[in-house]
Amino acid sequence: MENVAFIINPFSAKKNYQPFLNALKSKLNNPLYYISESILGTDEFIQKHFSTTDIFVAIGGDGTISTVAKNLINTDKILAIFPAGSGNGFSNETQFSKNLDELIEKLRQKKSRKIDTFTVNDRLSINVSGTGFDGKVVKEFEKTNRGFKNYIKVSLKTFFSYKPIKLKFFDEKYQQYNGKYLMVNIANTRQFGNHAYIAPMASKSDGLVDMVLVKKFPLTYSPLFAFRMFTKKLKEDDYLTYLPVSEVEFKVNTKNWHLDGEFNRIKSPINIKVQPASLTILI
């Protein structure tokens, strides 16, 4: 298949990428692929093949996808995905499955559309990023072997001991929301991953992100929160506020963030800015 490059994160899918690579080679004649050794290596591979490649396929989780996407922002190059992460939130939201034949057919048809992305202090995010409780969870989660069960274990352990963060907006129209929160999420799409819908009304093509403010809630509220999150029914209540924004600035008293599920240390003040229609994806 000409003008298509496959970028494989060998640490995704429990480090078992060989079956995918074997299947790819059996279905395509001499495919162009790269087994990523580092973010820098991925960047160099993309730049090397940029002029001769129309579609770059990211094989990995949201962090891998974001690394590839960073090189394609505001260009005519197309992003495609084969999900191989622990959550696969972005691939779920963009209708990419683990069916290789389906992906190859999409690559042949080469249909695409533009979607929004956003930045957190100029660092790219394509799906959901956040600070507070989930930033801490991701930090601790990266010390495990990943997987949904470990994510739940780390989340429960962290919940009981976690002290809410302090949030302070600079813009007067948002200052009524200053206060203490369990977590603050910035959602370009609806879900974290694993079909956990933190922002059921979010759209990746409306020029906005949903800022999700979650106050620490009592343990008795947890089952309802979880039920609503996994059934796309989360809504504003005493513990949850949604703020659709195109750009916003604020301070938080923590540096622990996750960007598309990857731990980052980011110092306040924080600037969130949407980049409308900045990424072209295969459909």
Compose a concise summary of this entry.
This protein has helices spanning 18-27, 39-49, 62-70, 89-93, 100-109, 133-141, 148-161, 222-230, and strands spanning 4-8, 32-35, 55-60, 78-83, 112-120, 123-125, 128-132, 165-169, 179-181, 183-187, 209-214, 240-245, 247-252, 256-259, 262-265, 270-282.
Record keyword descriptors for this entry.
ten-stranded mixed sheet, six-stranded antiparallel sheet, 16 strands, 283 residues, alpha+beta
Walk me through this protein's architecture:
27% of the residues lie in helices and 32% in strands. Strands 1, 2, 3, 4, 5, 6, 8, 9, 13 and 16 form a 10-stranded mixed beta sheet that branches. It has a 6-stranded antiparallel beta sheet with strand order 12-11-10-7-14-15. The two termini are 17 Å apart. By secondary structure, the protein is of the alpha+beta class. α6 packs across α7. It is built from 8 helices and 16 strands. The longest helix is centred in the middle third of the chain and has 14 residues, at 148-161. It has helices at residues 18-27, 39-49, 62-70, 89-93, 100-109, 133-141, 148-161, 222-230, and strands at 4-8, 32-35, 55-60, 78-83, 112-120, 123-125, 128-132, 165-169, 179-181, 183-187, 209-214, 240-245, 247-252, 256-259, 262-265, 270-282.
